[in-house]
């Protein structure tokens, strides 16, 4: 793979790296015919970000292996964020000095070579070792989401600024008449003395506001902030796709030259813990995210049976009583009892993680046979068959 | 007990926010006293604070466009709350461009001071931000701890040099010693001294001027009058406490002065048209 980025786009690329660094410690590079995809996932596997730069973004872009005689397999690799971020750390100096940035990966060696051709004839070459790895991809059926919003460029950024920097999680609440964000605190002694902040907007502030099902979702703010600082610098409207609590939320932007999205897992509140699975991987981690993720990964490694078992206990395959026009997505059993307004599903206390699929160079339709890490299972076989092949990959 | 105040003017909001931010830099918790005319931020001089105490008085009419309160009882028309000024400062800082900010006493999960701001938007609707700052109501029997401090029977009263200058000096001195001596006389001279085994450093300030307290102000008109103008009164204080006072200053005072009670107390006073801040640092041996 070889691509050349022109001066001013190098800053955009750098910003994408910054946003991804707020999500995870590793960056997956995946050159495809559609463009160069950069992806990252956090350690708890509750947040995933993906930036795809189309070939138009680059001065030159060739994604096939450099040596035609060898297999024309494109190289997919994983880099440590620690090695990559410092190269793009100072964006203003990149803007001022870099005329061209060239990134090349060859299958024959282990290096990703990043070269900055700067003013005054200076060339900086960085060789980063990579680990060849299957590409990472989250499956998130955004077109199946019941609630879709499109917020003008600065709106979300203006909203999250009201929350302190150390605020970990926030709750987004949407009804057809109102949209609000408030900070989320775990229940406990500390709850009493916490400062609560809530911010609400009228739907008409959004470019597009479609809420079918009132929902309240809680997710991590940190990864979102990184993404929002990227979108604000480009003045792009942000689309938000979400459902009820427990299902992931996706924030995305689109431009001629690139598309970016971040998918975050949302919290499922629980009142009973008896539905926690038989797999016995109940890890007593401090953060819910870690807790849940650990569960998911372990469970899915023995995919098939175990995965399904566990999932049925936490997310029944019962159909929601609400007349959704979309095919029924997994709902918790007790959710049926709840009224439409609040969607706190009393399933096991865990974050519903995303559906990840490790891809080989071709799309693998039979998800069951996917190689690990599959991070979340499906409610049952039929449902999976139904929507997996159609889901757009991110 | 009820309290409801509304700030509409941007400059007033800004000023109020800066005062609260200054207070938040001085102490982690303090008491807010409200009466029909004024707001007071009080820190009483307990051992836990290292003996430092603070009294900040704001005239409500200079900040609030609307101000209504009902105290504990008609005879004691006052409200006394304990809060973390940092929370209030954070709540106010994010709403600087609001069309209006309401501050009211509410009961949510606990008694709270709710800051409710209406932010401007391009469309006709408005955005509402609400911050609930948790507070503790102080019962009337403890109010005596938070009374206005009386001006001490000082030996010397002198105007301070620009706070920025003192701050620079104190910052450097902090690296050398834990204790700093402030001495001043009635001739407009002030010295900041530190002394260690290896080194002693003194910074001299001259022509500062002495505030004319006059006969009325000081309890006992005698001492300042009959005092030798060149004789220095000194107070040895913990340099970190002095630095903490200087570091947080966000409001540029129109007048700043200090009173020194020889080897007893350093009393710093910052005056501004709407706000006055007094800070007491005890002297150490």
Q: Can you characterise this structure?
A:
- The complex is a heterodimer of chains A (394) and B (285).
- Chain A is of the alpha+beta class and 394 residues long.
- In chain A, 19% of the residues lie in helices and 32% in strands.
- In chain A, a hairpin with a 4-residue loop joins strand 8 and strand 9.
- In chain A, helix 1 (7-21) packs antiparallel against helix 5 (221-233).
- The longest helix of chain A has 15 residues, at 7-21.
- Chain B has two domains: 2-146, Proliferating Cell Nuclear Antigen (Box), CATH 3.70.10; 156-282, Box (Proliferating Cell Nuclear Antigen).
- The radius of gyration of chain B is 21 Å and the shape is elongated.
- In chain B, helix 1 runs antiparallel to helix 2 (85-93) and helix 3 runs antiparallel to helix 6.
- The model of chain B is unreliable at 215-224 (pLDDT under 50).
- The A-B interface holds A 159, 161-162, 164, 191-202, 204-205 and B 87, 90-91, 94-95, 108-110, 112, 121-134.
- Strand 15 of chain A pairs antiparallel with strand 9 (127-134) of chain B.
Number of helices of chain A: 8
Strand order of the largest sheet of chain A: 10-6-2-3-4-20-19-18-12-16
Any idea how many domains of chain B?
A: 2
The low-pLDDT segments of chain A are 66-71, 271-350, 359-374, 376-394
Q: Rg of chain B to the nearest angstrom?
A: 21 Å
SSE topology string of chain B: EHEEEEEHEEEEEHEEEHHEHEEE
